[in-house]
Amino acid sequence: MRKKQRNRLIAAIAVVALAIIAFISFRPGSKPSGKSSTTITIGSIGPDVNVWRHIAKTKEAKQLGLKINVKSFTDGPSLLRATSDGSIDVSAFASWAYLQAYNKSKDNAGTQVALGTTYLEPMGIYSSKYKSVKDLPKGATIALANNAANEARGLLLLQSAGLIKLKKDFNDANGNVNDISANPKQFKFKLIDDTTGPRVIKSVDAVLIGNTIALTGHLNVLTDSIYHEKIDQSTKNNINVLATAKKNQNKQEYKKLVKLYHNKNIQKWINKKYSGTKVEVQKPISYLSGK
């Protein structure tokens, strides 16, 4: 008899406990237990991988309810293809011109959109043999990126340095070496994978490298280049953006990444970490597209 009474008591306690749990779990305003936030996978290259890994750990990310996973890539085309096919949710790598060139390519027409701007960092001309662009000799070999956007950007930089002249109708998004109208020193141009820039410095007379890639080779564009783009926000095509597949362009969680990047505490960390070489640009996409 005592055993039956004890079992009944245990059963009654269990019923009461379940009722309390149910009340707590489903009362108005309570959050369902076991619900986890959606993880956003960001793909990036070089130092920007470390930037986003830092951002992912910040209290600012948690305050916005963002759970971020960062995946490192070794080249831009692979990263953008992964973003187009959904393997990566958001890419943190491309300049506006690079993204536009990708979207205009035959196999990727219009597959991606920019979510927002992040920064502008200058491209530089580097050399292990010469201290000034004026010292580059006749017939010197100059290495340029083999992708449309950065090849065009590099040629514009060479023109700015007074080394070549480009055709009047030069396309600053996808112009190439065939658009050179004057080459007084008869420079030879070698097209390379832009991610290999720091590794080819000693094998050519000069090489043009974007700052993200330069940083991977421990190069600071402000102190190590023999010439570099002016550090301002006037060259809109060179502004970097966060991008995603077109079908995801209205996802609010992804748009929060733009706000997160421009948080003042995060910007303070980036400026200190990269010696001011990543100049913050907080502009609407209409500023880039001209719409």
From TrEMBL:
Does Transmembrane helix count among this protein's keywords? yes
The record ties this protein, via Gene3D superfamilies, to: Periplasmic binding protein-like II
What keywords is this UniProt entry annotated with?
Lipoprotein, Membrane, Palmitate, Signal, Transmembrane, Transmembrane helix
Q: How does it sit in the membrane?
A: Lipid-anchor
Q: Where in the cell is it found?
A: Membrane
What InterPro entries does the database record attribute to this sequence?
Lipoprotein_NlpA (IPR004872)
Main location (coarse class): membrane
| Cellular compartments per GO CC | membrane
> So where does this one cross the membrane?
9-26
Q: What's the family?
A: Belongs to the NlpA lipoprotein family.
Q: What is this protein called?
A: Metal ABC transporter substrate-binding protein
What species is this protein from? Lactobacillus porci
